[in-house]
Write a structure and sequence with these properties.
Elements: E1 2-11, H1 15-26, E2 30-36, E3 41-47, E4 58-64, H2 70-78, E5 81-89, H3 92-101, E6 112-113, E7 119-123, E8 133-137
Parallel strand pairs: 1-4, 5-8
Antiparallel strand pairs: 1-5, 2-3, 3-4, 6-7, 7-8
The structure holds carboxymethyldethia coenzyme *A (CMX) and cobalt (II) ion (CO).
Carboxymethyldethia coenzyme *A binds at residues 9, 36, 39, 41, 60, 62, 70-71, 73-74, 83-84, 107, 114-115, 120, 122, 124-126, 130, 132, 134.
């Protein structure tokens, strides 16, 4: 069952400048950064709500590490902006299977590794009224204070 907004993914050309915009404008701080080579992104997670029980919501700022990555291609075509939304679930495998059974294309056969050791998959935007949609199960460690 999808129970929350885990994050909103925002594509940007310059991660450091975009992080600084969110800090200076709203006071949001970076709670995590990483490079995910499989996804072709350098990313910063800004935690928006205060909970740390796996129920938190984030902005995920994304700068491509290569032009032929999903975010690189999208930026070249659209410029900066909202790239995807991500729903949180305790069981990404079950929810991906349930969505697939409804005829929506799930992009991965098995969930892959996302931010902070989470397990993620994506639904094709053309089957979701134009919205690239990610399903996320947080890593168990994300449920602890850190
Ligand atoms: N939102 C909405 N529509 C999108 C989109 C997006 N983010 N990305 C692509 N599309 C649309 C395109 O506009 C295009 O539509 P038209 O045919 O009408 O022009 C169509 O989908 C095909 O787009 P494309 O540019 O040819 O791109 P691809 O088909 O090669 O890739 C997709 C599209 C969704 C399969 C690819 O972006 C993908 O695999 N995404 C999942 C992985 C990902 O996004 N990783 C980065 C984030 C990592 C993270 O969140 O941790
Ligand atoms: Co994401």
């Amino acid at each position: 069952m999808l129970t929350r907004i885990d994050h909103i993914g925002i594509a940007c050309f310059d991660l450091d400048k975009t992080v600084e915009f969110y800090r200076a404008t709203y006071g949001f701080e970076v709670s995590h950064t990483e490079v995910n080579e499989e996804q072709g992104v350098r990313e910063a997670m800004l935690r928006i709500n205060g909970t740390s029980d796996g129920g938190a919501s984030y902005l995920q700022l994304l700068q491509p590490t290569r032009e032929d990555s999903p975010v690189g291609k999208w930026l070249a075509k659209n410029g900066e902006g909202v790239h995807h939304i991500a729903f949180g679930t305790a069981d990404v495998d079950a929810d991906a299977a349930a969505v697939r059974d409804k005829g929506v294309r799930v992009l991965y056969d098995e969930p892959r590794t996302g931010s902070m050791g989470s397990r993620i998959t994506f639904l094709h935007p053309k089957d979701c009224h134009g919205v690239l949609t990610e399903l996320v199960t947080s890593a168990p460690s994300a449920h602890k204070e850190h």
